[in-house]
Specification:
mainly beta; about 40% strand
Length: about 55
């Protein structure tokens, strides 16, 4: 598939996290074509870092 073509049924993979203009987003990329999307994180379900077991490591 060339870089100009896109597929009809995307196969999404999470490839990273970025800060776009102050908004934290998860980056999703199609495994079969060059299409990608930025999904903003939902502030309503954010958990404070101190409240996670990871913060104790």
């Amino acid at each position: 598939m060339s870089t100009e073509e896109t597929c009809e049924a995307h196969v999404w993979a999470s490839v990273g996290v970025v800060n776009r203009d102050g908004t934290v987003c998860k980056i999703w990329e199609c495994e079969n074509c060059p299409v990608w999307a930025a999904e903003p994180f939902d502030d309503a379900v954010e958990r404070a870092w101190e409240d996670t077991w990871l913060s104790e490591r």
